[in-house]
Amino acid sequence: MITYRASLDVPFTTCATVSGWLAAHRRAVDVRPWQRAATCWVQAVLVLRWFKDGTALWLLACDACISQATAYRYLHEALDVIAQHVPDLHEVLAEGREQGWSHVCLDGTLVPTDRSAEKSPDTGYDLWYSGKHKRHGANVQVLTDPTGYPVWVSPAEPGSTHDITAARTHVLPALYRAAAAGLPTLTDKGYTGAGIGTKIPHKGHDLHPDDQTYNHLITDLRAPAERANALLKNTFRALTRISLDPYRTTQIVAAALVLLHLQRGLRTSGGDHGVSPPAARSMRRR
Fold it and tell me: Where are the domains of the chain?
């Protein structure tokens, strides 16, 4: 085996921030943090390589000069540490209203996972298999600002869960309060019956011209939000197929959102982390 130098498409300060979080975590939980097999910087590079390139764990372990078991442990530890900084939904919505957002957009996405043999206790079918997408994965609800940038992600549900069911569990109660305060939510037809404050296109053919105009308006306003899921998955190749325990998808997607905010903030001017102010301040408070 030969070694060679390589570049990682991640800003230096993003890695430094993650390394600082890991160092603080080690000081809080380790009795002898100086006896770790790898430094905080090496651990930060390991998790960033896994996210950006989907690098195999055995290769990451080899490059870090640690065992494969230690590499898995370091990866899971880093995921938990980074995910702790995910923006809070209520704070994002409250500060979005302060910033004068006209609306937010809600959309669901399937984060592909390895095949799982777990059965649903209700139906007896594969719990993690999505009939809509014809593959195994986890259902994640993504909330975006009016520009289509993701500002919040929900805990993951098994792939067999419908979008409306996942939304009712994790996000709709908060969106109802936001709608009552003047911040409506735009969604697609998969959320029919979501409730007050949720703007959904009308279903059916040969619609009345008023309904057709309404549908066009909702579709045009939602168009920027279609890039949110692609932005997460194209930035972090690990999200194209997760080979870890599918129940870890919640921490993985939350950590990906935090890293996206950090990375975007360093490539744009102004603002804390360069993200939309609500998401930035929510991250800073944590």
Answer: 12-83, 89-254+271-285
